[in-house]
């Protein structure tokens, strides 16, 4: 593997679970074969606890416990964290107690003592993102899980025992599109520094153009498409979506809205997943009519305080993405994707 280089918050508890699925998903979920050559990892977003005691929520604790339990038997190689690592204003410096109180003291299972790769969310940008990057190399940490090498970066893997390759491109959607608060929709004011945004977008295209991997996953905090509270991110629909389609990206992972979603447009091969309910739950479906017709395949959030996360398994044959809930690890939804067909 190589690396390339307290505000108001409204929890909406007014709706019940909504699950939208295609007929295909009604079939039994694909079983995970531990003996099959594969690369497995976990994904969570918006997990960032609280800025005051006890510095974590019940949902975060439950998600951490369930992730640890599931990881005992699944041989995960790493975890992707999709931003909003520390509510509501990030951290101040690399010695901030939030690293301990909200991360190290919560995700304590031995099975989770694997690399975690982070990007920043809008709440992280309210604080010092450079401190989160610096914490990666800080001495005398409780664990070596935390990896945040730069604002944006790529990860490259080969599925053990095969020639199947995976590229994960993690970029910073806040510096690209601008910051927001929890009461704004997807229309942002624009980047704070246009040159920084332009440089990052050029880097993203260079990464996409260069990779020949069988599977390519792009991650960011802001979603391209979302049917929930914040809705689609217009900046990303305009600037990033065309790149995803042109270069044949397998999937786009994001957080920001506090639920689980899968969206796919009929005329596109790109699969969009929102994984954002590892700390707060928001049942809003405010933007159901703002996404392309028939693109919303699944959306889940409920008012019982259960969070969720995802697991991914990559083999020579396919990539299997599964949503799980925190109470008992129940598999909520699954999507199977095939390797890319390079032009």
UniProtKB/TrEMBL annotation:
Positions annotated to bind Fe cation 1: 46, 84, 87, 258
Chain residues that bind Fe cation 2: 84, 122, 221, 256
Signal peptide per UniProt: 1-26
EC numbers: 3.1.3.2
Keyword Metal-binding in record: yes
GO BP, sorted A to Z: bone resorption
Domain Calcineurin-like phosphoesterase stretches: 39-259
Catalyses which reaction(s): a phosphate monoester + H2O = an alcohol + phosphate
SUPFAM superfamilies cross-referenced by the UniProt entry: Metallo-dependent phosphatases
CDD domains the UniProt entry points to: MPP_ACP5
A single GO molecular function term of this UniProt record: ferric iron binding
Top-level taxon of the source organism: Eukaryota
Cofactor(s) required for function per UniProt: Fe cation
Official protein name in the record: Tartrate-resistant acid phosphatase type 5
SS bond list: 177-235
Gene: LOC118405250
Carbohydrate attachment residues: 128
Pfam families to which the protein is assigned, alphabetical: Metallophos
Class of this enzyme: hydrolase
Keywords: Disulfide bond, Hydrolase, Iron, Metal-binding, Signal
InterPro entries documented for this protein: Acid_PPase (IPR024927), Calcineurin-like_PHP (IPR004843), Metallo-depent_PP-like (IPR029052), Metallophosphoesterase_PAP (IPR051558)
Transmembrane regions listed in the UniProt entry: none
Cofactor note: Binds 2 iron ions per subunit.
């Amino acid at each position: 593997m190589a690396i390339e280089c307290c505000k108001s918050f409204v929890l909406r508890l007014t709706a019940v679970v909504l699950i939208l699925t295609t007929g295909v998903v009604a079939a039994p979920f694909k079983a995970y074969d531990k003996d099959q050559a594969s690369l497995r990892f976990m994904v969570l977003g918006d997990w960032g606890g609280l800025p005051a005691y006890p510095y974590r929520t019940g949902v975060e604790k439950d998600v951490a416990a369930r992730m640890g339990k599931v990881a005992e038997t699944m041989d995960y190689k790493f975890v992707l964290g999709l931003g909003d690592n520390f509510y509501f204003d990030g951290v101040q410096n690399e010695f901030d107690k939030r690293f301990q109180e909200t991360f190290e003291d919560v995700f304590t299972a031995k099975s989770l003592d694997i690399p975690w790769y982070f990007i920043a969310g809008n709440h992280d940008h309210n604080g010092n993102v450079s401190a989160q990057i610096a914490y990666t190399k800080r001495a005398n940490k409780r664990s070596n899980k935390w990896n945040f090498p730069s604002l944006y970066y790529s990860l490259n893997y080969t599925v053990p025992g095969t020639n199947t390759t995976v590229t994960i491109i993690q970029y910073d959607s806040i510096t690209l599109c601008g910051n927001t608060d929890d009461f704004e929709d997807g229309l942002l004011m624009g980047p704070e520094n246009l040159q920084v945004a332009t440089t990052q977008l050029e880097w993203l295209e260079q990464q996409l153009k260069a990779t020949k991997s069988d599977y390519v996953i792009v991650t960011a905090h802001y979603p391209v498409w979302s049917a929930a509270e914040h809705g689609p991110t217009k900046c990303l629909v305009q600037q990033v979506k065309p790149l995803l389609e042109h270069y044949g990206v397998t999937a786009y992972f994001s957080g920001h809205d506090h639920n689980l979603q899968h969206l796919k447009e009929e005329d596109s091969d790109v699969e969009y997943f929102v994984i954002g309910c590892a700390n707060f739950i928001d049942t809003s479906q405010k933007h159901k009519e703002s996404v392309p017709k028939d693109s919303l395949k699944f959306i889940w959030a409920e008012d019982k305080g259960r969070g969720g996360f995802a697991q991914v398994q990559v083999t020579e044959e396919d990539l299997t993405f599964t949503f799980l809930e925190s109470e008992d690890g129940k598999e909520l939804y699954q999507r199977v994707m095939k390797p890319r067909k390079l032009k």
